[in-house]
Specification:
- The structure is a single chain.
- This protein has 21 helices and 19 strands.
- It is an alpha+beta fold and about 575 residues long.
- The strands form 4 sheets. Strands 1-18-17-13-12-9-8 form a 7-stranded antiparallel β-sheet. Strands 7-4-3-11-10-2-19 form a 7-stranded antiparallel β-sheet, with helices on one face. The chain has a 3-stranded mixed β-sheet with strand order 14-15-16.
- A hairpin with a 5-residue loop joins strand 10 and strand 11 (about 405-415).
- The longest helix has 21 residues, at about 320-340.
- The relative contact order is 0.19.
- The structure holds 6-diazenyl-5-OXO-L-norleucine.
- The site of 6-diazenyl-5-OXO-L-norleucine (DON) has 14 residues, from strand 10 and strand 11.
Length: about 575
């Protein structure tokens, strides 16, 4: 990273003079850095010269930055953040889930790690259907049968083995400290725990630390997680065997046997993360987007959308304009139609990646696009998009002092996953099996439909929408970006990317900009209130679009390399995360 300290001092002086209003992220976290302290202009996120971590919980961002200050690289920091989030952000941070990691090293080498869950050996194509052949959502979304074999712990060891520099024990220790000594609850996290209390009691026999039987959780309450601390200690001492074999594995299987679960000791022992070839797409010559291929749909769908948009003058259209929203929604609709039919785990299904990304094919897909009118999805059976606000995933972005970058998205699927705790081990299990297509055309909890490509098979990975990306500009690191949000992840990442690249916004502005989402089925544009309540609603309705309000779409944690070489980090104002920077 370049140094512009005189410039920075000038900005600090300007900042003090103007006494501008300081939001939660307009100055660098002072505890995390040495001098000089850097202030930014309004509408920028956190600024630092050397390193940045942005994630869903300030304590986990701090863990990541401390690892970098100890000499760790971005991969070390990402691993430490993952374990810390498993403690302080239990609704999505996890040991019992999975995810994807996109890595770009300082020399430009890129790689992607798939640590997605797998279907257990006893899984079956029809396992969530009743005797009439209807999909039973409760079976794939709650309780023990909803869980895939967790991939997160193996994923962290795999990333460390290939790219880590500090010992794994050092990277796990901060999470152990947080679990044992406790941490204070943030307001939204306390609220989520209270909202899920009834489910925690319904699906668990044993007492659990996350359930406050006496009263409601509130902001500032101290939460200690001793069983989770012990599980992390076993992982620290025995490596991934501390999770996939021995005591922890026995506790997971015992938990399965309390009800209808099917994950076996053999499933756990056999779990393997996979390094996969990144999906790389150029956008307007200058930009290269490095993303995740199947079993995530994110990279292919995002690349399709960027290619379909490449020939339009987006900047001239304006980000709030009805024509822009219409165009982007139409492109989203077309990409999601392909997602439903063609995408699934490549180890089990032949995904036509080259064909899906061919320029000619995408041009043809846009040939029926009308500037003035929506193209109906109505010829195909509609999904039922009944998304609850409780869904949850988490994304984090890391850039280290050498310029290595990690973009990682991880999840239990729904908020707190299957709601089932592994008794004695202190962590929650995922309900990722719901991301499979339980039956062709039957919508999952995100209203997404699928077919044979994403049917359940033993050992197969369920299709994901997680879209961690790293972007290059003129061959240098430009942006690290990702979000939670189920199916809206892909459209959130697309829109924040376009807001920066086409609409020339700062990262903070690009992230705070209102978002919208179309996923082919159901045939509607989901919009945040600013759009839904704005003039665009009537204008888009006239173009035959149906709009539906969503309070919040996605929660971005991202890092941007500015033209002067400095890093801008930003954690979405829709949530309570934080970007923390480091300036040597
Ligand atoms: O992999 C997927 O696409 C989903 N399991 C992600 C779930 C999610 O993002 C929930 N979000 N907020």
């Amino acid at each position: 990273m370049k140094y512009y300290k005189n410039y920075l001092l000038f900005v600090v002086a300007l900042f003090c003079l103007t006494q501008c209003k300081v939001s939660k992220q307009t100055i660098v976290e002072t505890t995390a850095i040495a001098t000089p302290q850097i202030a930014t202009v309004l509408n920028e996120g956190t600024i630092a010269t050397d390193a940045m971590v942005s994630c869903a919980h300030p304590l986990a961002s701090k863990v990541g930055i401390e690892i970098i200050k100890q000499g760790g690289n971005a991969i070390d920091a990402a691993i430490a953040v993952h374990f810390a989030l498993a403690v302080v952000y239990p609704s999505a941070g996890n040991l019992g889930g999975g995810g994807f990691m996109v890595i770009r090293l300082k020399d430009g080498t890129t790689n992607t790690l798939d640590y997605r869950e797998t279907a257990p050996t006893l899984a079956d194509k029809d396992m969530y259907l009743n005797s009439e052949g209807d999909a039973i959502a409760e079976l794939s979304q709650y309780n023990r049968l909803a869980s895939g074999v967790p991939g997160s712990v193996a994923g962290m060891f795999e990333a460390h083995q290939k790219y880590g520099s500090l010992p794994m024990e050092t990277l796990i220790q901060p999470a152990i400290d947080l679990a044992q000594k406790g941490f204070q609850l943030l307001p939204i996290e306390a609220k989520k725990l209270n909202e899920n209390k009834a489910d925690f009691i319904k699906y668990n026999e044993a007492n659990n630390y996350l359930v406050n039987k006496e009263k409601e959780w509130k902001e500032g309450d101290l939460m200690k997680l001793p069983d989770l601390g012990n599980t992390l200690l076993r992982i620290q001492q025995k490596g991934k065997k501390g999770f996939y074999e021995g005591e922890t594995a026995n506790l997971i299987v015992a938990e399965m046997k309390r009800d209808n679960g099917i994950i076996s000791l053999a499933d756990l022992k056999q779990y393997q993360p996979v390094w996969r070839k990144p999906i790389v797409t150029n956008y307007k010559n200058d930009y290269k987007v490095i993303s995740m291929g199947p079993p995530s749909s994110g990279g292919i769908a995002l690349s399709q959308m960027l290619k379909m948009l490449a020939n339009f003058s987006l900047n001239e259209m304006g980000v709030d304009n009805k024509n822009y929203i219409h165009l982007v929604a139409e492109v989203e609709r077309r990409a999601f139609a392909d997602r439903a039919t063609h995408l699934g785990d490549m180890d089990y299904w032949n995904v036509p990646i080259t064909e899906l990304l061919e320029d000619e094919y995408l041009k043809e897909k846009m040939s029926d696009f009308l500037l003035s009118t929506a193209s109906p999805s109505s010829s195909i059976k509609a999904g039922n998009f009944s998304v609850k606000e409780s869904e949850e995933t988490t994304h984090f972005s890391v850039v280290d002092a050498a310029g290595n970058a990690v973009s990682s998205t991880t999840t239990l699927n729904a908020s707190f996953g299957s709601k089932v705790f592994v008794t004695g081990a202190g962590f929650l299990l995922n309900n990722e099996m719901d991301d499979f297509s339980a039956k062709p055309g039957a919508p999952n909890m995100y209203g997404l439909v699928g077919a044979a490509a994403n049917a359940i098979e033993p050992g197969k990975r369920m299709l994901s929408s997680m879209t961690p990306i790293v972007v290059e500009k003129n061959d240098g690191l430009f942006m690290v970006l990702g979000s939670p949000g189920g199916s809206t992840i892909i459209t959130t990442v697309l829109q924040v990317f376009l807001n920066v690249v086409a609409h020339k916004m700062t990262l903070k502005e690009a992230t705070d900009q209102a978002r919208f989402h179309h996923q082919w089925l159901p045939d509607k544009i989901y919009c945040e209130p600013e759009i839904f309540n704005g003039p665009q609603n009537a204008e888009l309705s006239k173009m035959q679009h149906q709009l539906e309000k969503r309070e919040s779409i996605g929660r971005v944690d991202a890092i941007l390399v500015k033209p002067n070489g400095m890093l801008e980090g930003y954690s979405d104002s829709r949530a309570e995360g934080k970007a923390i920077g480091y300036t040597k």
